[in-house]
Amino acid sequence: MTTRPAAFLDRDGTLIEDAHYLSDPDGVHLLPGVAEPIADLNARGLLAVVITNQSGIAQGLLTEAQYEATRRRLVDLLADRGARIDASYHCPHHPSVSGPCDCRKPALGLYERAARDLAIDLAQSLFVGDRRRDVEMALEVGGMGILVPSTETPPNDVHWARTHALVMHSLAEAVAYWMAQLRD
Length: 184
Hints:
Elements: E1 6-9, H1 35-43, E2 47-53, H2 64-80, E3 87-91, H3 95-98, H4 109-118, E4 126-129, H5 132-135, H6 137-141, E5 144-147, H7 155-164, E6 166-167, H8 171-181
Parallel strand pairs: 1-2, 1-4, 2-3, 4-5, 5-6
Helix pairs in contact: 1-8
């Protein structure tokens, strides 16, 4: 089976404002400038895949149906701006409530599932987000990890990324850099 690279994108703090346990689709607000780089990925035939931890589900702060409604709202807002998310995966667990799992970032479970589902080459893929847990798996699989800090990013995550990954100012900058590095 032929595999292809993908851009794995964190949701909260990377694509939308981090509203902490978002349960209402009306609370989904795109961050400035995120639709354009996703549209650029789409135009180049590259996959845009959202991977997100949603521990509020395990904690009873939101339901699967509420998560699904916010996911659909994100898809609709991006579509209104000419951008498409090819797939979304979420971890509904929280270690203190549901115990350990293989899908909570930084674990590889959801990435490996996406790779199987969509024939993705993880070693050629981009891992971008506003937290260390969003990008550190790039080290394990040989991909490119890029931290795009938000107001919620811990300083230690930025320090770690400067040593082990890359730090860029925007999703647009991260996507453009990665696309320029892809092997043809």
